[in-house]
Prior knowledge:
Blueprint: H1 2-17, E1 27-34, E2 37-43, E3 54-61, E4 73-79, E5 83-85, E6 96-105, E7 108-109, E8 113-118, H2 119-122, E9 130-136, E10 139-145, E11 163-170, E12 179-184, E13 188-191, E14 199-208, E15 213-214, E16 221-224, H3 231-267, H4 275-282, H5 296-300, E17 316-319, H6 331-343, E18 351-354, E19 383-386, H7 396-411
Antiparallel strand pairs: 1-2, 2-5, 3-4, 3-6, 6-7, 6-8, 9-10, 10-13, 11-12, 11-14, 14-15, 14-16, 17-18, 17-19
Amino acid sequence: MHSFVYGIMSLVWLSSSGGGAELxxxxxxxxxxxxxxFNLSWxxxxxxxxxxxxxxxxxxxxxxxxxxxxxxxxxxxxxxHTWCDLTPRKLYFQAIYTLRVRTHRGPLRSGWVLKEFxxxxxxxxxxxxxxxxxxxxxxxxxxxxxxxxxxxxxxKELYPRMYYRVVYWEHSDTRSPDTVVVDTRVxxxxxxxxxxxxxxxxxxxxxxxxxxxxxAFTTPHCMQTEGAVPWWQILLIFSLSGLVGFVGLLVLxxxxxxxxxTAKDTLFPAVTLPPHFQAYxxxxxxGSDAPRLLTPDSESELTCDRLSICPQVVxxxxxxxxxxASTAPPSGLEADARHNRQDxxxxxxxxxxxxxxxxxxxxxxxxxxxxxxxxxxxDGGSTALLEPVSLEQVSLEQVSLEHRGLKAEAAGPWxxxxxxxxxxxx
Length: 426
């Protein structure tokens, strides 16, 4: 049926194009496929090779060709390439499609060239997408990943009876390998009859027997098997483990001892104070002068001696001037006045002066000395020493009153006032 339809389409093309067509159609239409990836390619006619031409590709399900009003679907329009990718068109895998290609150059068109395509029958089968090996003692476990479609699905969904052919051999550089072939439909395989501690290489092929499809073999993947560990390796591993543990224990003990010594030297230093310093610092008796904090109880018992502060006292001397003949005092007073002049070294100066810096008697701070303003008998001397208790207690008024009292006594019973007595200044 399909051949009949194809023949009819060829006759229609011949009748429409005629023998006098100016453009030659494409030649050698070929489909390059892998799983669900489809690519249609062709060659440019020899007569137009190198010319500025373009191509158009269309497709339609073959069963619609016998239907009136069939519309072709465009895959590539006016492309300068000699190939067209049909994968994005998502052609149904088990359906049969009719493809056609023609050449364009300006307003000129060539006739269509037709080609039938069935992906289920004609598409090539790809190898496994991945192969992994893992040692399992003296054997090898192999994991096979299915070929992938254009939508990243497994090709087993399209080929349920697909299986794998596994070829493995012992890796050797000195002799040709002896291969072993194993067919399997599962994705996990354990390779049998292997030797321990030996390198083996594996290659896998996808197969589908209904259309006799076979893929290329995968790149060889090699892995070494394992086995029972020899006694000397066990002994060596045990010895190394013990040595490492012993060294680690020594390091741990050394670190602990160092930390202990550091803490001990810091908190309890080896250099101590002399015994008499320790006894002084540890003396907590009430009479000790060691520094310590005062507590409320100790403050209540704290006693101090009374302290008196006395200012420096400057004794004052009062000198009386000599009396004139007309106003001479009584004999007793005259004698005292002469005595006063003799003590003053014959000087006619009168007033109050300080004995500071002289060789007078030592100064004392005493509360037994008489104060100014008290009436005491004059002992007849020419100098009266006035030693008040405090300089703050002496005032000009008190000195003036004392001076006036002395002048009254000098006047005597006659009531004559001695004009020779001058006011005294401090």
